[in-house]
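U., I forgot to send this yesterday:
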Amino acid sequence: MLSPFKIPGTAQHFLECQSEECKSNCEFYCNTCRLQLCRQCRDLHLKAKKNQNHNVVLYQERTRQLLEKCKIHPSKETDMLCDECQVSLCSKCATSQEHKGHSFTDIEKIHAEKLALWQKEIDKIHEYYIPTSQYLQNEIKDDAKNIKKIINSMRESLIEDADLLRSFVETIVTGKMKQIDQIESSLLKDVEIQEDTFTKYITYLDDIVKEFNWYITNRKALSEVMTIQPIPCITKPDTPAYIARKCKIEDVAQLLGEISFHEKRTESRKLKPMKMISQADKNKEECLKNNEQAEGKQIISLSPSIAKIRKFNIHGAYGALHLSMSKGDRFWVSDWDGNLVQIDLQGGHQLEKIKTSPRSEGYHTTTMDGDLIFTDINKKVIRRMTLNNRSTSFIKTGEWKPVSLYSSNSNGDILVGMVKDKEARITRYDKTGKEIQNIQWDSKAEELYSTPYYITENLNGDVCTSDFSKQEVVVVDREGQYRFSYKGSQESAFFPKGICTDILLHILVCDYYSDSVHLIDQNGQFLSLLITRRDGLKSPCSLCVDDENNLYVGKLTKGITVYKYLQ
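Result:
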């Protein structure tokens, strides 16, 4: 039985009673038989013996079921969704002329898928996000305590330095004041001696005058000629001076300790990895388990030598700049002239063809449902081509130009490589087109990407991006945390293009410069040059691995070559 959803709220317009020949306004709702009722019909409805146990409530408090009655065919339920019109229909509506040729999806299936997705996210919340957030919250509280402790210690150290500096100043001032006192005492002593000398000299002069007056008064004969002693010779004191030093506040500040603090913190808090097994991990484990248990078969491993299985040209395209594996032994291939062609895996025969703008990146992919999606870089949208060959606008990317695509085989997420001005990023959408993640910087706030032209996802959830301008393969984990960059195996230039992964978590990438295919492990360790010019490889652009672990290598102008490299 389907779980009902409780939907509160009030009606936004007048609803009519659904009882026969009654047009009164609806006030009540029978959850049991799902009828809109007026007050009078509600009483009649409950009086009927067969309806005595029915659950009749106010319309605003109704329980809405997942499947509702069709407004056109009241006896039917709207149990399917028209993919083109995005409206709910009953089985009779689906056969009408209005929906002729349209594709339909079971609403219960949509609900089940959404419920599973929501449950998966809810599990993540309980198992990872809440515990991790609580851990970080406690760490933040500890940081606050530590900050207060450090700040208080800084204050105490500053006060100690200031007190020490103050004591030094007081000691120096006391010494200099003592020196000034000594100078004053010495100078005043010299001046006092000079003053006493002149006091005595003035007395000597007064005595001569008195003696002269006495001789005159008494009419005494004057003695011999009088000789006056010269005025004493003295020196003028050398007065001291205080030369004030023009001290600035900066000079004083240098005598104290410095405060070191980097306001812009670039180190991110370390998060514990999410320990949750994805569907891709389960598929890989199951595949390896079955492989080990298969009687007479060995565990899948690298073959000691690579074998060329077949080679074919592509009808309808000039080359194979990008490959997207599809369902039913077929895949999509694009060339440099904007031809996007679906071909079979056996001989490269054209099955369908779409004309797009000329592109050289990995701009198309196929979903888990087998739909083709591709980017329209000029209109900045991602378009979906359904199985009935109808193209619809699926995702709008705003100011960002979508250049590359990859649809996850584990959960249906869509990874989009985007550029804007001099910025680049990988944006993750769920399979309904809702944006859920952006990957642009590493933990040091450095740009991860420049031209993310090709994208793939490894079975461990790593997102692997071939960046032509940076000349490296950039790998981040499922959460968008930077893991490593692979810059080629030699000192020569490395121009990566097409990229894919295999059942053993190997990463395979085309090197357009050296005409080779590099094989590296999931941690970025170079393993070998899987295919080189010696094998006749020239201008490799695209890669993909099919369900039989065969490697398809697309070239600029000369079709596709298939290799066997696993055993």
